[in-house]
């Protein structure tokens, strides 16, 4: 009986450690957005233009609405002008909501995925993204409380006109 309790305790500890290791830190390659409706990581050699996005402690992105053409590869130059850590994550509303929940549980996560960048105060980073389908691609700051405070935006992807 006591041996089973010890085994269960060891197993629970190992499972907790694995979950923490998976959720914390850089989760590069943790998400596959290659065939998603939001597009795919872009190639720096094919950048069409650069869009500067400022993240502020007012829990807003500037600009919060961006328009691109389907097929464009955009370099988002993401600037944190605030005093707290912010991030920009591209995704569907469902992905962003689910990821915001994970961030509440594991606020120490940093992002190295192609669709996200975590930026410390006074620093800058970039996302290079190719928009493959017309429609709306949402973005948000998923630091705990920021998404809930309204730190969100959208990229309108327009179909190419012939």
Q: How would the blueprint of this fold be written?
A:
Blueprint: H1 2-23, E1 40-41, E2 49-56, E3 60-62, E4 65-69, E5 73-80, E6 86-91, H2 93-105, E7 116-119, E8 124-130, E9 135-140, E10 152-158
Parallel strand pairs: 2-5, 4-10
Antiparallel strand pairs: 1-8, 2-3, 5-8, 6-7, 6-9, 9-10
Which class in CATH terms? Mainly Beta
The CATH superfamily is Cupredoxins -  blue copper proteins
The beta-strand count equals 10
Helix coverage percent: 10-25%
Strand order of the largest sheet: 1-8-5-2-3
Shape: globular
> How is the CATH topology named?
Immunoglobulin-like
CATH architecture: Sandwich
Total helical segments: 2
Task: Give the integer mean of the pLDDT values.
Answer: 81
Structural class: alpha+beta
Ends distance: 74 Å
- Estimate what percentage of residues fall within beta strands: 25-35%
Oligomer: single chain
Summarize the helix and strand pattern as letters.
HEEEEEEHEEEE
Radius of gyration (Å): 18 Å
Number of domains: 1
Main beta-sheet annotation = 5 strands, mixed
Spans where pLDDT lies below 50 across 5 or more residues: 3-35
């Amino acid at each position: 009986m006591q041996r089973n309790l010890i085994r269960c305790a060891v197993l629970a500890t190992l499972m907790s450690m694995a979950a923490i290791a998976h959720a914390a830190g850089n989760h590069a390659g943790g998400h596959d957005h290659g065939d998603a409706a939001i597009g795919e990581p872009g190639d720096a050699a094919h950048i069409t233009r650069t869009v500067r996005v400022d993240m502020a402690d007012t829990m807003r992105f500037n600009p919060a609405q961006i328009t691109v053409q389907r097929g464009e590869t955009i370099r988002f130059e993401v600037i944190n002008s605030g005093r707290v850590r912010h991030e920009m994550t591209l995704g569907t509303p469902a992905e962003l909501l689910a990821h915001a929940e994970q961030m509440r549980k594991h606020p120490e996560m940093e992002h190295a995925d192609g669709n996200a960048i975590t930026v410390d105060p006074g620093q800058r980073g970039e996302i290079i993204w190719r928009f493959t389908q017309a429609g709306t691609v949402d973005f948000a700051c998923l630091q705990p409380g920021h998404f809930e405070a309204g730190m969100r935006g959208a990229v309108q992807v327009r179909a190419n006109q012939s």
